[in-house]
Write the structure tokens for this entry.
Amino acid sequence: MTSDPLEQLRVALRSAAVDQFAGVLAEGLGQRLREPTDRLLAAGVGPQERELRHFRGGLDRFEERGRQDRSRVVAHGLRVCLALSAARSDVAEAGKPKTGRRKQDLGRRLGKSSAKAQAGADASSSKSESAARTDDTAAPTSKKKTASKKKTASKKKTASKKKTAGKKTTASKKTTASKKTTASKKKTASKKKTASKKKTASKKTAAGNNADPELTALRAAAEQRQASVELLPGVGARTRDKLAARGLETIEDLAYLLPLAYEDRRRTSSLQDIEEGAAVVIDGVIRSFRQGWFSGRYSATLRIEQVQRNGARLGLEARWFHPVGGLGQRVTTGAPILLAGVVKRFRGKLNMVHPDVLDPEHGLGIALRYPQVEGIGQRTLVRLCRAALERLRAAKLAEPLPPALVREHGLPGQIEALSALHDPPDDLPEPALEALMRRDSPAHRRLAFEEFFFLQLGLLRQRGAYRSVPCALPPLAEGSFDSERLRACLPFEPTGAQWRVIAEIERDLARSKPMLRLLQGDVGSGKTAVAFAAALAVLDAGAQAALMAPTEILAEQHLRSLTPWCEKAGVRIALLTGSTPRAQRTSLLALLAAGEIDLLVGTHALLVEGVDFARLALVIVDEQHRFGVEQRGALRDKGAAPHLLVMTATPIPRSLALTAFGELDVSVIDELPPGRVGATTKVFAGARSLGRARAALVERVRANEKAYVVCPLVEASEAIDASDVEATAAALRKLVPKTEIAVVHGRMLGREKDAVMQRFRAGEVRVLVATTVIEVGVDVPDARAILIEHAERFGLAQLHQLRGRVGRSQGQSLCLLHTASARDSDAGRRLEVLEASTDGFVVAERDLELRGPGELFGTRQSGIPRLRFASFSGEGMKMLVAAREAALKIIDEDPTLARHPALRLELRLRTGDTQLWAGESG
Ligand code: ADP
Ligand code: MG
């Protein structure tokens, strides 16, 4: 992201517009659109203001809109954006040729020519961009730059560094200061902008040209790729705008627009032997054509005749129920015709509804279907994509993937692949065409590999950047880790898996580079003890550690489990949450800053301004997927390149782990502490199953057990048919009147929740009716039953988490899943996955298959990229692993890609305007 609200808006809109506006459903999109729009409005946009306000109006209640409606708003936004940037470049680039806007745009992406790059300090620019910019100035080629250039470069560097810092410690004083500077700088910059931009830009480009022929060539190539679609024959402003409304602005955008489907229309079929329902092409002679409005409805009927092998004539009737432009002119009685469509039999006659009318001379061939672009027909799209491809071919651009990789993996070259996709030859063998249809052709594989490769390259390069800052904490000496001391503090012997992970962490801590480790372990596998071991090692070296949890309940629980261990170890532990009383908070912060607290446990409250550590060397983030990447970065910024350990109990399929957390090394605790039996899971499906499910739970309660009941809602809703906490509690009270039943949900205050949890733990409350606030981490070992009502409303991984609340001690635990849907429905079958498996990884893989990666974590924030060509399942996984290995090999040899300018440029082009990944921002 950049600080330019227009650019930011454009990026958000484009990410929403891809693949038939699939992106409009992304979480948080409304906010991402409103924010820059409001900034634009505040800054003033001139004549476009009315249109922009109109668009802004559409963003109100965006979240409540349906997909169609959202798509309309986004399309409108894209048009407005286009008008805005056109207006902008009119001011800035008056007198330049038509392509000027694109060029300038490109220049900005390359961090070279725009006033923005000069102003530099841009409080919200992403790390990837600023890092890339820094790199570019630090590239080997900069040697030849003049002294004054170097100055600018280093200034930029400082600015962009500040920027990164600014983003992360948004709350810290420093930032406020630097933001102010930013604001004032920007102002000055924008004042001067119009006057000086053009000059500086051209000067710089010239200097750049002299500096390095290779880079110049790369830039020129990039310019070709990013040239406006207007350069294509027959594309004027109107077509351009229509394409832009779908996010297709450049030659490259079109070349990379994948056809959705292919149809084999190379042969005609005889009516005498066609199968009903098959898509075929029929050649014939026109017998009659009739069109008109009949009782208010349009209809057109075309009768054709086809001569069969035996000489017989068979007729076919084609019908249209809406006007088709030019149809009347194209059909003349007695003329030959080709119709493509599905043949059906209706009242004994063969007919086709809404067939395509093909050119009788050149109509046969492989037909392509592209995603809909409003106002542009399929034929035009085919032509435009081919024309775009031809331009790329003519430009003789270098292959974006390293050629050695292309060879090694037996992939087609870029142009070859694109050409196979947009322009398959008519003599393509049947199996190859089928592969195209399945999206499994070599060309598809090539694009998928390319996508994964650059994704991984970006992630690993970010990791390299973070790792290049040495830790403040000196490497722990080999063997300094005291396992006997750990044993003495813990009330149990760690499992083999726990010891293995502790050893992995110990090895990380013995290096001067910061640890970046993801610890996965199923619920109840004992991650807290591992975190404690890591903290102990760091604390013994005289530094501090922080443990951040997503909820207060969880933070408090961590404090409770860690306190006795810390007491034994002589570690000073404290808790900081949003509900820590003010006075206590003040003294706690003073202690923390003085280094008198060793281990600080808390929630988001750890991230705010004023929480300053004396010597923070280890950051542990629990249930990490619940935090945005930014928050992870913010906590890390409170120390000097601290070690990072993120923990998650949501088993993450390896494919996702490699992408969403691609910058992290992964450890897995794959063994549960002894004596765990897990839970037996039963599904209660069907309209009247809720009563039976509750009865089954009550049976356990009557046998003196503690139980959880989870409901989707806090209070009754008219719109959603699902149970709510209060109503369920009331129903249960009727069933077991003498049992104490309490509720807990997210709308309660922290201390209210605590009080209830405390009573549940102590056994005063025997049934806890809750929302998903209890989803993660809550540990009440003697609760052995859980009922989840309307379980179909939750993801499988989430249900697995909820199920993890029980089965934490000796004795058989029970998990009851209720759904009002039938067992034999999608929802019912999904729940059966849980009945069949208690292995979190199996469940997660199935969830990934069934619902896609975005759903697995219930949030887009988690940094899972949206893939255009690749997929996480099946073959995709192999490709991902291969791409990662390839990227790793390059990064290992050349961490900043200094020796790979082409790859660096490619990365930047790819991240400049699509959120290909949302990696660590630090
Ligand atoms: P999670 O991985 O879900 O965070 P916890 O760290 O909360 O799991 O551990 C779950 C429970 O198991 C806790 O009560 C903890 O004390 C206990 N525990 C952890 N490790 C062991 C072990 N090696 N042996 C016995 N109990 C253990
Ligand atoms: Mg835990």
Remarks:
- The pocket of magnesium ion (ligand 2) is lined by residues 527-528, 622, 777 (CB under 6 Å).
- The radius of gyration is 31 Å.
- The first strand starts at residue 261 and ends at 265.
- Residues 173-211 form the longest helix (39 residues).
